[in-house]
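Known limitations

Files may contain more than one protein. Parsers should not assume a single record per file. Below, a two-record file is shown to illustrate correct handling: read the sequence, read the token line, then continue until end of file.
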Amino acid sequence: MSCQVGRKKMIFTGNANPQLAEEISQELGIPLGESQISHFSDEEIRVRIFETVRGADTFVIQPTCAPANTNLMELLIMIDALRRASAKHITAVIPYYGYARQDRKTQPRDPITAKLVANLITAAGADRVLTMDLHAGQIQGFFDIPLDNLKALPILVQYIQSKNLDDIVVVSPDVGGVTRARDLAERLGSKIAIIDKRRPDANVSEVMHIIGDVRGKTAIIVDDIIDTAGTIVQAAAALVAEGAKDVIACCSHPVLSGPAIERIQDSVLSEVIVTNSIPLGNKKIDKIKVLSIAPLLAEAISRVYEERSISELFI
């Protein structure tokens, strides 16, 4: 172990997901650092760190989920506060990386906001980023600092296997998610199917047809994000129409914006498996099963601190 004797490890959290931060703190056996995030009367964000961080390895836990702009600014200001207080290393732990879907130009004069956010995090003073299931793999290359992209797949697999399901087929909701579906299928020892669809506009999808055999099988739709749930709900209906006996959906990041909860509640889906990378708040319903990523993030934080391999977690 190469960590220096006496070097402190400190965990701080913003307001985006304090419950997850508390779980990580308990897993690590160290208390959360004392800090306060509030707002001035004009809604500008105020960050105060109440204990010394000089020479410490600090970790800021803050997904940039909704309200994305507020949570992103909290993260940037906390990083800046720690840098100016002489923290030795600052790792931004971002379980859900917002703006990730704006990762390339699809129309003239489009911004690449995922790259802009990467620049902001780096400029604020972060030395490293820990995130999970980036929407697009190339975002790793947007950073000029080390980035570790963790995978929620082992957590999802463990839960699915505990259900002892028969005749499973893993379904990708679009062609772009085939690699993710194949990884899950290999771990579950099942075949895959693909939903062939077109997307005429943002947050609007139309299922075309299903590639693969789903008749009489339990279909597990896997995606990285469920946002408005339109894609997942339409895919589930198409699978049932093709003879699937049951449909389950799983994802890493439950954005669940707009009509998502109502759509899921009224759909043919029997269960939606998600992680707590994003807090559900008042969006909890019986159909949604939340799995904790706190043990995974805690182990990754320990490995960063001790300068050990992160990739060994997924071998």
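...continuing to the second record:
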Amino acid sequence: MASALPDDAGRPLLDVSDVTVRFGGITALSGLTFDIAPGQICGLIGPNGAGKTTMFNVVSRIYQPSSGRVVFDGVDLLGKPRHTMAKLGITRTFQNLALFPSMTLLENVMVGAHSRGSIGFVRAALRLNPWKEERETRELAYGLLDQLGLADLAFRPAAGLPFGTLKRLEIARALAARPRFLLMDEPASGLTHNEVDELGETVKRIRDEFGLTVLLVEHHMAMVMGISDKVVAMDFGSKIAEGTPTEVRNHPAVIQAYLGTAA
């Protein structure tokens, strides 16, 4: 068994070591290893079927790998149940929006805050929680909507709003859990060109303002290369390149995976 990571300031926030995932006779991930330093935006890229979503779901504890190790800030994630992720400081957004359409934007963000709080969502929905925590949660949620340019829509139901607006709402809800590590699953999916540019700026801004580390799974290559500090490229379940956006963009294996020919 590998020894524990040293308790020092230089260790990665996330350390993925030799992770393999098998579904029956299919190997979805094969010995994947990479790490992410505190404060980095790390883009995880690859063609369809490369294993990006599988890796993402391992980190968010949806899948249990067949072998390997995933350590978050010195804690073995594979020994933790999924419902403890928010309290560890890990939250995620979803490619297919997982919002409550009939709730207001403010209420949707408050749900994110309660995932980390002590009172629980059911008590909050029934208004059985202490008034002080309720007030603080509402103030936090409204502040996040304001930071993401959604304050004027705070009391509108989520249903019927533009897709780009709902993407920002989901980011606000994830931030309400006060994460240190944010997993973003295809956040640019379905957005217009201008909305993608705005999203990229938003991701960089919230990283800086909230002191986040971000793992970004995304097909929109221009955005990934424009905002990532580090990029991990995958193909057929294995890592084929890792480094700065420039290094990965020019790597022969990445060119071949995307274009079918080496540079």
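Parsers that stop after the first record will miss the second one. For reference, the second record is described as follows. The two ends are 40 Å apart (CA to CA).
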